[in-house]
Design brief:
Number of strands: 8
CATH superfamily: Vaccinia Virus protein VP39
Catalytic activity: a 3-(all-trans-polyprenyl)benzene-1,2-diol + S-adenosyl-L-methionine = a 2-methoxy-6-(all-trans-polyprenyl)phenol + S-adenosyl-L-homocysteine + H(+); a 3-demethylubiquinol + S-adenosyl-L-methionine = a ubiquinol + S-adenosyl-L-homocysteine + H(+)
Order of helices and strands: HHEHEHEHEHEHHEEE
Function: O-methyltransferase that catalyzes the 2 O-methylation steps in the ubiquinone biosynthetic pathway.
Keywords: Methyltransferase, S-adenosyl-L-methionine, Transferase, Ubiquinone, Ubiquinone biosynthesis
CATH topology: Rossmann fold
CATH class: Alpha Beta
Binding site for S-adenosyl-L-methionine: 40, 59, 80, 124
Low-confidence stretches: none
Strand order of the largest sheet: 3-2-1-4-5-8-6-7
Family: Belongs to the methyltransferase superfamily. UbiG/COQ3 family.
Protein backbone atom coordinates (compact mmCIF):
# COMPACT_ATOMS: atom_id res chain seq x y z
CA UNK A 1 0.00 0.00 0.00
CA UNK A 2 1.40 3.42 -0.87
CA UNK A 3 1.55 6.22 1.66
CA UNK A 4 -1.09 8.18 -0.29
CA UNK A 5 -3.52 5.32 0.30
CA UNK A 6 -3.25 5.76 4.06
CA UNK A 7 -5.52 7.88 6.22
CA UNK A 8 -3.22 10.91 6.02
CA UNK A 9 -3.81 14.58 5.20
CA UNK A 10 -0.45 15.74 3.87
CA UNK A 11 -1.34 19.41 4.29
CA UNK A 12 -1.92 18.76 8.00
CA UNK A 13 1.39 16.90 8.26
CA UNK A 14 3.21 19.84 6.64
CA UNK A 15 1.73 22.29 9.16
CA UNK A 16 3.29 20.45 12.08
CA UNK A 17 6.54 19.64 10.27
CA UNK A 18 7.15 23.36 9.72
CA UNK A 19 6.83 23.98 13.47
CA UNK A 20 8.61 20.83 14.66
CA UNK A 21 11.80 22.50 15.89
CA UNK A 22 9.77 24.49 18.44
CA UNK A 23 7.80 21.53 19.83
CA UNK A 24 9.51 21.48 23.23
CA UNK A 25 9.56 25.28 23.70
CA UNK A 26 6.82 26.01 26.26
CA UNK A 27 6.48 29.57 24.95
CA UNK A 28 6.15 28.55 21.29
CA UNK A 29 3.13 27.75 19.14
CA UNK A 30 2.87 24.58 21.23
CA UNK A 31 2.36 26.47 24.50
CA UNK A 32 -1.21 25.19 24.76
CA UNK A 33 -0.06 21.57 24.47
CA UNK A 34 2.48 22.13 27.23
CA UNK A 35 -0.21 23.61 29.45
CA UNK A 36 -2.78 20.85 28.93
CA UNK A 37 -0.32 17.96 29.00
CA UNK A 38 -0.46 17.51 32.81
CA UNK A 39 -4.26 17.43 32.60
CA UNK A 40 -4.18 14.79 29.87
CA UNK A 41 -1.78 12.71 31.92
CA UNK A 42 -3.88 13.03 35.08
CA UNK A 43 -7.02 12.10 33.15
CA UNK A 44 -5.37 8.89 31.92
CA UNK A 45 -4.09 7.95 35.34
CA UNK A 46 -7.50 8.49 36.92
CA UNK A 47 -8.57 5.45 34.90
CA UNK A 48 -5.43 3.30 34.89
CA UNK A 49 -1.98 3.30 36.48
CA UNK A 50 0.66 3.63 33.79
CA UNK A 51 3.35 1.89 35.84
CA UNK A 52 4.57 -1.16 33.91
CA UNK A 53 1.99 -0.79 31.14
CA UNK A 54 2.71 -1.12 27.43
CA UNK A 55 1.39 2.11 25.91
CA UNK A 56 0.89 3.33 22.36
CA UNK A 57 0.68 7.08 21.71
CA UNK A 58 -0.99 7.61 18.32
CA UNK A 59 -0.18 10.94 16.66
CA UNK A 60 2.57 11.57 19.20
CA UNK A 61 4.10 14.58 17.42
CA UNK A 62 7.23 15.73 19.23
CA UNK A 63 6.61 13.40 22.15
CA UNK A 64 5.18 15.58 24.94
CA UNK A 65 2.66 13.03 26.16
CA UNK A 66 4.84 10.04 25.22
CA UNK A 67 7.68 11.18 27.48
CA UNK A 68 5.31 12.13 30.28
CA UNK A 69 3.78 8.64 30.27
CA UNK A 70 7.22 7.04 30.17
CA UNK A 71 8.19 9.06 33.23
CA UNK A 72 5.17 7.50 34.98
CA UNK A 73 6.68 4.07 34.40
CA UNK A 74 5.08 3.04 31.10
CA UNK A 75 6.83 1.33 28.19
CA UNK A 76 5.81 3.78 25.46
CA UNK A 77 5.75 3.55 21.68
CA UNK A 78 4.91 6.79 19.89
CA UNK A 79 3.80 6.84 16.25
CA UNK A 80 3.25 9.72 13.88
CA UNK A 81 3.32 10.39 10.14
CA UNK A 82 5.37 13.56 10.44
CA UNK A 83 9.06 12.85 9.98
CA UNK A 84 10.37 16.07 11.52
CA UNK A 85 8.31 15.90 14.74
CA UNK A 86 9.53 12.33 15.24
CA UNK A 87 13.15 13.44 14.80
CA UNK A 88 12.58 16.16 17.38
CA UNK A 89 11.02 13.57 19.72
CA UNK A 90 13.99 11.21 19.31
CA UNK A 91 16.51 14.01 19.89
CA UNK A 92 14.68 15.05 23.04
CA UNK A 93 14.91 11.53 24.48
CA UNK A 94 18.68 11.70 23.94
CA UNK A 95 18.74 14.91 25.97
CA UNK A 96 16.52 13.65 28.79
CA UNK A 97 17.38 9.96 28.86
CA UNK A 98 13.68 9.05 28.85
CA UNK A 99 13.12 5.79 26.96
CA UNK A 100 10.46 5.98 24.24
CA UNK A 101 10.30 4.04 20.98
CA UNK A 102 9.22 6.15 18.01
CA UNK A 103 8.01 4.93 14.61
CA UNK A 104 6.75 6.61 11.46
CA UNK A 105 3.86 4.30 10.62
CA UNK A 106 0.11 4.73 10.05
CA UNK A 107 -1.97 3.45 12.94
CA UNK A 108 -3.96 1.22 10.57
CA UNK A 109 -0.75 -0.51 9.43
CA UNK A 110 0.45 -1.00 13.01
CA UNK A 111 -2.95 -2.47 13.91
CA UNK A 112 -2.45 -5.11 11.23
CA UNK A 113 1.10 -5.80 12.45
CA UNK A 114 0.46 -5.87 16.20
CA UNK A 115 -3.18 -6.47 17.11
CA UNK A 116 -4.03 -6.58 20.81
CA UNK A 117 -0.49 -5.55 21.80
CA UNK A 118 -1.01 -2.61 24.16
CA UNK A 119 -2.54 -2.12 27.59
CA UNK A 120 -3.22 1.55 26.87
CA UNK A 121 -3.70 3.42 23.59
CA UNK A 122 -3.83 7.22 23.54
CA UNK A 123 -4.86 9.37 20.58
CA UNK A 124 -4.93 12.99 21.66
CA UNK A 125 -5.71 16.02 19.48
CA UNK A 126 -5.39 13.94 16.33
CA UNK A 127 -8.83 12.76 15.18
CA UNK A 128 -9.75 16.23 13.93
CA UNK A 129 -6.69 16.27 11.66
CA UNK A 130 -7.28 13.10 9.59
CA UNK A 131 -9.64 12.45 6.66
CA UNK A 132 -11.23 9.33 8.20
CA UNK A 133 -11.27 9.55 12.00
CA UNK A 134 -13.51 6.49 12.30
CA UNK A 135 -10.73 4.39 10.77
CA UNK A 136 -8.30 5.65 13.42
CA UNK A 137 -10.77 4.75 16.18
CA UNK A 138 -11.17 1.25 14.70
CA UNK A 139 -7.40 0.79 14.49
CA UNK A 140 -6.96 1.88 18.12
CA UNK A 141 -9.59 -0.68 19.12
CA UNK A 142 -7.66 -3.43 17.33
CA UNK A 143 -4.41 -2.45 19.02
CA UNK A 144 -5.64 -2.54 22.63
CA UNK A 145 -5.62 -5.74 24.65
CA UNK A 146 -8.73 -7.16 26.32
CA UNK A 147 -9.10 -5.33 29.61
CA UNK A 148 -7.21 -2.32 28.26
CA UNK A 149 -8.02 1.36 27.87
CA UNK A 150 -8.20 3.66 24.84
CA UNK A 151 -8.17 7.44 25.33
CA UNK A 152 -9.15 10.11 22.83
CA UNK A 153 -9.29 13.87 23.03
CA UNK A 154 -10.76 16.13 20.39
CA UNK A 155 -12.97 19.18 19.77
CA UNK A 156 -16.75 19.31 19.73
CA UNK A 157 -18.48 20.82 16.67
CA UNK A 158 -20.86 23.62 17.57
CA UNK A 159 -20.94 27.45 17.43
CA UNK A 160 -19.26 27.85 20.83
CA UNK A 161 -16.32 25.62 19.88
CA UNK A 162 -15.89 27.54 16.62
CA UNK A 163 -15.81 30.86 18.47
CA UNK A 164 -13.43 29.65 21.18
CA UNK A 165 -11.13 27.16 19.41
CA UNK A 166 -10.87 28.89 16.05
CA UNK A 167 -11.83 32.57 16.27
CA UNK A 168 -10.68 33.09 19.85
CA UNK A 169 -7.64 30.82 20.15
CA UNK A 170 -6.24 31.35 16.65
CA UNK A 171 -7.27 34.86 15.62
CA UNK A 172 -7.96 36.93 18.76
CA UNK A 173 -5.76 35.52 21.52
CA UNK A 174 -3.09 34.07 19.22
CA UNK A 175 -2.83 30.96 21.37
CA UNK A 176 -2.51 28.75 18.26
CA UNK A 177 -1.19 29.40 14.74
CA UNK A 178 -3.88 30.53 12.31
CA UNK A 179 -5.21 27.56 10.35
CA UNK A 180 -4.42 25.00 13.06
CA UNK A 181 -7.99 23.71 13.03
CA UNK A 182 -10.60 23.02 10.37
CA UNK A 183 -13.98 23.48 12.06
CA UNK A 184 -15.67 21.09 9.63
CA UNK A 185 -13.52 18.30 11.08
CA UNK A 186 -14.53 18.87 14.69
CA UNK A 187 -16.29 15.83 16.17
CA UNK A 188 -19.46 15.72 18.22
CA UNK A 189 -19.42 13.28 21.17
CA UNK A 190 -22.31 11.36 19.60
CA UNK A 191 -20.26 10.84 16.45
CA UNK A 192 -17.25 9.63 18.42
CA UNK A 193 -19.53 7.34 20.42
CA UNK A 194 -20.92 5.78 17.25
CA UNK A 195 -17.42 5.08 15.91
CA UNK A 196 -16.35 3.63 19.26
CA UNK A 197 -19.34 1.25 19.33
CA UNK A 198 -18.76 0.22 15.71
CA UNK A 199 -15.17 -0.64 16.68
CA UNK A 200 -16.30 -3.01 19.44
CA UNK A 201 -15.75 -0.68 22.39
CA UNK A 202 -17.88 1.42 24.68
CA UNK A 203 -17.43 4.87 26.20
CA UNK A 204 -16.83 4.62 29.93
CA UNK A 205 -16.23 8.34 30.48
CA UNK A 206 -16.51 11.72 28.79
CA UNK A 207 -14.92 14.74 30.45
CA UNK A 208 -14.57 18.29 29.21
CA UNK A 209 -11.49 20.49 29.29
CA UNK A 210 -12.19 24.16 29.90
CA UNK A 211 -10.10 27.32 29.55
CA UNK A 212 -10.50 30.31 31.86
CA UNK A 213 -9.38 33.45 29.98
CA UNK A 214 -9.07 35.56 33.15
CA UNK A 215 -6.70 33.13 34.88
CA UNK A 216 -5.22 31.60 31.73
CA UNK A 217 -5.68 28.15 33.23
CA UNK A 218 -7.13 24.91 31.90
CA UNK A 219 -9.10 22.44 33.98
CA UNK A 220 -11.03 19.19 33.62
CA UNK A 221 -14.79 19.53 34.02
CA UNK A 222 -17.35 16.74 34.02
CA UNK A 223 -20.28 17.48 31.76
CA UNK A 224 -18.71 20.49 30.02
CA UNK A 225 -18.16 18.91 26.61
CA UNK A 226 -19.00 21.90 24.44
CA UNK A 227 -15.41 22.68 23.32
CA UNK A 228 -12.52 20.33 24.19
CA UNK A 229 -13.31 16.91 25.61
CA UNK A 230 -11.59 13.65 26.51
CA UNK A 231 -12.99 10.13 26.25
CA UNK A 232 -12.13 6.86 27.94
CA UNK A 233 -13.05 3.72 25.98
CA UNK A 234 -13.00 0.05 26.96
CA UNK A 235 -13.32 -3.06 24.81
CA UNK A 236 -16.80 -4.50 24.94
CA UNK A 237 -17.12 -6.91 27.84
CA UNK A 238 -14.81 -4.84 30.07
CA UNK A 239 -16.26 -2.70 32.83
Amino acid sequence: MTETAHNVDHAEIRKFEELASRWWDPESEFKTLHEINPLRLDYIEQAVSLQGKEVLDVGCGGGLLSEAMALRGAQVTGIDMGEMPLRVAELHTLETGVEVTYRRVPVEVLAAERPASFDVVTCMEMLEHVPEPAAVVAACARLVRPGGHVFFSTLNRNPKSYLMAVVGAEYILGMLPKGTHDYARFIRPAELGAWVRAAGMHLSDLTGMTYHPLTGEYSLAKGKLDVNYLATCRPDGDV
